[in-house]
Amino acid sequence: MPIKKLRDKKKQIPKKYKEHKPKAKKKEAEGKDHGQGEKGKRAYNVLRGMHDILPREEKYWKPMFNNAMNLADHFQYGRIETPIMEEVGLFVRSLGKGTDVVEKEMYVFENDEIGRVCLRPEATASVARAFINGGMWNYPQPVKLWYWGPMFRHDRPQAGRYRQFFQVGYEILGAEDPAVDAELVLIAYNFYKDLGFPVEIRINSIGLPEERERYKAELANYYRAKKSYICEDCRKRLLKNPLRLLDCKADQCQPIKDEAPQIVDWLSDASKSYFMKVLEYLDELGVPYNLQPTLVRGLDYYTHTVFEVYPAVPSENPGEEKAQSALGGGGRYDLLVEEMGGRSTPAAGVALGIDRSVAVLKHYAEKNPLNLPKPVYDIFFAQLGDRAKGRALKMINDLRKSGMKIGFNLYKNSLKTQLELANDLKVPYALIIGQKEVQEGTIIIRDMESGIQEIVDQKKAENIVKKKLKKFDDGDK
Ligand code: AMP
After folding, report:
1. What predicted TM-score, i.e. pTM, was given to this entire model?
2. Residue 13 burial by CB count (10 A; 0-12/13-18/19+): exposed, middle or buried?
3. Model confidence at 372: pLDDT above 70
4. How many CA atoms lie within 13 A of 13 on its CB side?
5. Half-sphere exposure of 29 (CA within 13 A, CB side)
6. Closest CA relative to residue 276, chosen from 175, 349, 207
């Protein structure tokens, strides 16, 4: 684009989209030099409640993802990716108006073209929408889906509570069977067991909406009689969403909560026997659980089974409230798809928070070193001179499908430094290429242990190296 046009375009950028500089702190911020960039330039910080996941964290994040994917493969879930932006109404209708997530925590944007949209605070509603939009009711039922991605909640940041965080989730749509509920609890349990740390499963049943309504009325009656003894928040909950009274952590409310009526007594025989079946399956699977009569999982879309996963090891921050340290949660949502405008489709799912899981994994790894596999390099590529650098990069690229793990640092010009790196990576062979080798179409293979070098044809190098490496596969190391 011609520069003049570009300049004109720049002029058109509405003021509100121009770079935001906090006014009060502008001077201070502009003077900051974080050792990067020029003096006088403002250094940007990651937004409050959000965090970068740096390469050094990879050793914790990678096993999470691999584990999630292996479980999905084994239990036959298909991967689904939904957009991070959705219509606001999708979450208002599914999660419910009176929930904290919808009332206070959504990042909402207004736009003439797309209307009121928000960053997704969770993915189950999106999966239900995609199930309908994608005509998945026509697939053989049930449809098993899994996702991995960032969620956004504009909450007050604190330990383990972020504004952008990752979740992995598993959903089963199109089957009403206690074995489905048990499978999802099993997946959550396995996810952590395979990572090497034990978790506690808390489980309850909240039955069907009509049973819950009767229970809510009873609970509200009970709390109304004790109104003068409960905390300010609970007084509000009593008016707005009595079920949330059971989430209260205030000391003054605990004795009242302990004596409160329990939802299980308001369940029909059919709901009770459904729940019993889920528990029987868990017994059969050897998944330990604790019945938690006050567990209701604040969202409107749940029916029957609800459960949460907690670390069984002390969490990163022992002072942290228990509700904040849940690693994951899930349950049955038989009415959601219909509520979203689809056909009646029984369903259930679980979502596990990865950021919190990583925190616990780190904490656990401090005491019990994890046997996380270290990458094993087969060869190291070293180069000397500009032309050799280009050829080395080309050869490294050509070897992508060779199955060999190749170490290199083409941006170091000293051969000595590069060979030291090769030593650090403990490779048995280094491939060295200089100007002379480029011209002659050859390459040097150096045995790192003996220091013996041989010159071979570049085209034959892959096969020769593979043959040499084979003796290590045969256990001759
Ligand atoms: P929920 O469905 O809200 O219970 O979320 C399921 C899991 O996602 C939780 O148990 C957490 O591990 C994780 N999670 C939820 N909200 C946050 C947050 N604000 N920051 C970090 N992780 C979260």
Report:
1. 0.84
2. exposed
3. no
4. 9
5. 11
6. 207
Q: How many CA atoms lie within 13 A of 71 on its CB side?
A: 27
How far, in Å, from the CA of 353 to the mean position of ligand 1? 5
Could you tell me the distance, in angstroms and rounded to a whole number, from the CA of residue 356 to the centre of ligand 1? Answer: 8
pLDDT over 50 (residue 371):
yes
In the chain, the domains with their CATH numbers are: 21-50 (no CATH), 55-207+267-367 (3.30.930.10), 379-471 (3.40.50.800)
Count the residues in the chain. Answer: 477
Q: Whose CA is nearest to atom 17 of ligand 1?
A: 161
Q: Is the CB of 327 under 6 A from ligand 1?
A: yes
Is the pLDDT at 35 greater than 80? The verdict is no
Q: Where are the beta strands (DSSP E) in 259-395?
A: 290-291, 303-311, 328-332, 347-353, 379-384
Angle 329-335-338 (CA atoms, 0-180°, nearest 5)? Answer: 130
Structure tokens given for 453: 């070098």
Which of 48, 94, 147, 151 has most ligand 1 atoms within 8 Å of its beta carbon, as the pocket-test mutant? Answer: 151
| Averaged pLDDT, 205-209 | 94
